[in-house]
Short chain dehydrogenase
Amino acid sequence: MTGQLKSSSDPTSIVDLESFPKASVALVFGSSGGIGGALVEAIGAANRFEHAVSFSRNTSPSIDLLDESSLERAATFAAAKGELRLVIDATGFLHDERQEPEKGWRQLDAAKLARSFALNAIGPALIMKHVLPLLPRSGKVYSCTNAAPIASAASRMRLRAFNLAGTCGEWFRRRPPRLR
Ligand SMILES: NC(=O)c1ccc[n+]([C@@H]2O[C@H](COP(=O)([O-])OP(=O)(O)OC[C@H]3O[C@@H](n4cnc5c(N)ncnc54)[C@H](OP(=O)(O)O)[C@@H]3O)[C@@H](O)[C@H]2O)c1
């Protein structure tokens, strides 16, 4: 995305999506979330893309970050609508009914860390695995994935876990032709 939001309270005030070819597809993973929802709204308001496709666990088709085949299906579904030129992964997991944010390092639990890593790092990396080969090889393309801390305690202690998803997003964004 080349522009920036003019105001954090007005996600529709995005300034510049004009440089994307008009007959293309914008794709947002995590559209039910705070960031994903605002981006879907902004993309719709910009009226630049022929199709805006978004996914969460409640869309049809739905995605689940723990189910690679659902991510592959979603990517194929979106690519069938036209050229994928803007792809944003705004998924993420901090806590739910099964898992509370850790308040200190004594609460770190291997199984919970593994689940967090699967949702916050492996899932986003697999999204990119299935999206990147579908991107056009010429013209403007932008894909990104959010960097998420793997554990809140680690984050509090400023020991952010290595974030595979964030790293891949940055790497692929900078060097897409070589890595596809
Ligand atoms: N908010 C911030 O200030 C901030 C700052 C920097 C980075 N981030 C990162 O940005 C990302 C999004 O943040 P947010 O505040 O928008 O989070 P959010 O409101 O909690 O949204 C999370 C999104 O991830 C989806 N999701 C969760 N578990 C899933 C699963 N198992 N399968 C498929 N989708 C799943 C949710 O969809 P469902 O409807 O299916 O639950 C939802 O759309 C996170 O990675 C966060 O760490 C956020």
Remarks:
- Confidence is low (pLDDT under 50) at residues 1-8, 154-180.
- The chain has one domain: 11-179.
- The CA atoms of residues 53 and 108 lie 37 Å apart.
